[in-house]
From TrEMBL:
One of its GO terms (biological process) is carbohydrate metabolic process. GO terms for molecular function: hydrolase activity, acting on carbon-nitrogen (but not peptide) bonds. Gene3D superfamilies: Glycoside hydrolase/deacetylase. It comes from the Bacteria. It holds the Pfam family Polysacc_deac_1. This is Polysaccharide deacetylase. InterPro entries: Glyco_hydro/deAcase_b/a-brl, NODB_dom, Polysacc_deacetylase_ArnD. It comes from Blastococcus saxobsidens. Residues 37-228 form the NodB homology domain. PANTHER family: 4-DEOXY-4-FORMAMIDO-L-ARABINOSE-PHOSPHOUNDECAPRENOL DEFORMYLASE ARND-RELATED, GLYCOSYL TRANSFERASE-RELATED.
């Protein structure tokens, strides 16, 4: 590494360290500090017939657990799938009442939606809900205050699986390996939010979500990594928080 690259890398590390220091007060979860060789696997935008069920089979085949960030627009339509997620021992968390980006909504509406969403999801699951994943990873400081004020912690991610793009399974699996390490929070999807969820992100990609996750888990296993839910990872690890206000 030349002197310029060394200086740049030191500057990046310093910025990250500053975000983490501030993150203890104003933080969103970005990974888990753990000694165990496991990654945190998360799924967004479900439940969805043809997606969630296949993902559940793949997880079962690998003996893995995961955290599912669900949309209430979908929980109301596909309640039996939510019950299947719970019955299989996975964790359920909130992705939103719908999939609209928080910064595009009036602040008082965000506060009402997040608080009401948590209550509705706790009624549906019969369990406490601890985590919130902002749609598109977008939040302002004010949104963050609404989320934490509702008793939830925002959870972002590290590695992704590119399962919202039209690429091959091999490319999705290769992408999921980039930057992965123990305690990384991996972003995947068991559904695709559409107009009925307040999203306008075009047509869904054509893919078998079970095949993708089976491939991702196999590649992690090749590196000695298993996958588990966030609540499971925190049994032997600590949440790492950073400030995250991309707007
Ligand atoms: Zn989403």
């Amino acid at each position: 590494m030349n002197a310029l690259a060394t200086a740049r890398s030191a500057a990046v590390a310093a910025r990250r360290s500053a975000r983490r220091s501030a993150g203890t007060l104003l933080g969103s979860a970005v990974e888990v500090r753990t000694e165990r060789p496991e990654v945190v696997l998360t799924f967004d935008d479900g439940p969805e017939p043809g997606g969630t069920d296949k993902v559940l089979s793949a997880l079962d085949g690998a003996g893995a657990t995961a955290t599912f960030f669900v949309l209430l627009t979908r929980v109301r339509r596909y309640r039996s799938l939510l019950d299947e997620v719970l019955a299989a021992g996975h964790e359920v968390a909130l992705h939103g009442v719908d999939h609209r980006a928080l910064p595009t909504l009036p602040a008082d509406e965000v506060a009402r939606l997040v608080r009401g969403g948590r209550a509705e999801l706790e009624d549906a699951t019969g369990r406490p809900v601890r985590w919130f994943r902002p749609p598109y990873g977008r939040q302002t400081f004010r949104n963050w205050r609404s989320v934490t004020g509702a008793g939830l912690i925002p959870v972002l991610w590290g590695p992704t699986t590119w399962d919202w793009k039209d690429v091959s399974v091999a490319e999705r699996v290769a992408k999921s390996q980039q930057g992965v390490r123990s305690g990384a929070i991996v972003l995947a999807h068991d559904g695709f939010a559409g107009p009925a969820d307040g999203a306008c992100d075009g047509p869904p990609p054509v893919l078998d979500r079970g095949e993708v996750i089976a491939g991702v888990l196999e590649a992690y296993a090749d590196h000695g990594l298993s996958a588990c839910s966030l609540e499971h990872a925190l049994l032997s690890g600590d949440l790492v928080r950073e400030t995250w206000f991309p707007g």
